[in-house]
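This section describes the prediction task in plain terms. A model, or a person checking by hand, is given the sequence of a single protein chain and must write out its three-dimensional structure as a string of tokens. No templates, partner chains or ligands are provided. The sample shown here is typical of the held-out split.
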Amino acid sequence: MNAAGYRYAASDQAFYIPAILRHLDPALFPRDAALIDSQAHLILFDDVMAAIVRATGLSLQHLLLAFYIGTLLLLYAGLAYVAARLYRTQWAAVALAAALTLRHAIAKTGANTLEAYFHPRELAFALGLIAVGAFLDRRWLVALGLVAAAAVFHPTTAAWFAVWLTVAFWAAARHRVTIAIAVTVAAAAIAGLLTLGPLAGRFTTMDAEWRAAIGPKDLFPLEWPLNVWVTNLVALPVIAVGWRLRRAAGLLVPGETALVIGAFGLFALFLVWLPFNIAHVAIAVQLQLSRIFWLLDVFATVYLIWWLGDRPQALRPPLVAAAVVAIALARGTYSSIIEFPDRSLFAVDIQHDDWREAMAYAKTTDPRSGWLADPLHAATYGSSLRAAGHRDVLIEPIKDHAIAIYDRSIAMRVADREKALSVLPWDTPDGARALARRYDLDYLVVDHPVELPLAHQSGSLFIYRLR
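The expected answer:
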């Protein structure tokens, strides 16, 4: 409810769904393959999901819904695991779970504590939280296996948990020789990836044209306003004060101090990374290491809930839990009923009727066809043409700008198409034909009649042939 309901094919699924579809049908996206692969070749998630579809016969819609529900359950399992090791009462665990349903953005990082759709980053985060619980439970191999599993779904999120827990293992004086060997091996593997593997050639500098093509993506912390710095950095004093109060009360548990040291180790890594980001080194920008504040945010919330409802002098734990649950329900009700009244709690398929029918027609056309649509169609109809119609589209700026981070040539392609759209009106006969000639396009989908040969009509949407 706090995420205003589950939606299929929303936001980042504009990338993930086409990446999966390419494995299921190599004939798809012949024009946009380079764009999709510029990010897809860095991850395994699309390969895994395609393999599951082949093995089970499930539709992608139902598979992603199942993974979404599974992710929520794993998130709560991770919170409960950590709470069971740090809190004295189950009421505090209830309060913590309720607090983490209060979806909010980690300022200027592109990450949210919850998403309204399945995102592999959320699943990796859930596995990382369970790994933190396993660390406190001194189940070292389980923690290692969970972080490795998280890397399959979202490598960078797993990497931040790996750093946090590696520093914590070291601080706990556990198996330091083994850790040193593991870190050395990992460093060698990373060096190989950066020189010979899929990350090779990423120590170049992002020039002004590349950065301009990416657009305002909040990738450069030096450009953050002061309030964003305060919002993100406040987690550090909350963690430090919470730890000091627990130590003074004699409530620290084994491994807790090591976790706090690991958390500050994450921030130290951020400070080391920052100069490279300021210098616009490509790999530094692409890593988006500012997302470590997501981990710190959750850890700070753990201490905040302890201070409110679990410390010896705190308010009665049941009252605190009831208050946090009431706040979460009130905000969730507002989001799902008042703010977004048209959204169902679970939208398993495309919700806009006309867009869904138009995209069903698109799937019947030649897979090699190129499509022209409103540049803001993904926001207008809730899903991109690539994800919903399984066809190449001239541009989908909301996602294409994000993918442009990973490859300069893709960034220049996006910039070129946006420049063309700035001088050629895409929804007029002359403009559409000119864009069709320039980019070899076949169809136009638009929400008003145009003097072009009509191929299909879906309610308020018209699909025209461009040649």
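For orientation: Residues 60-86 form the longest helix (27 residues).
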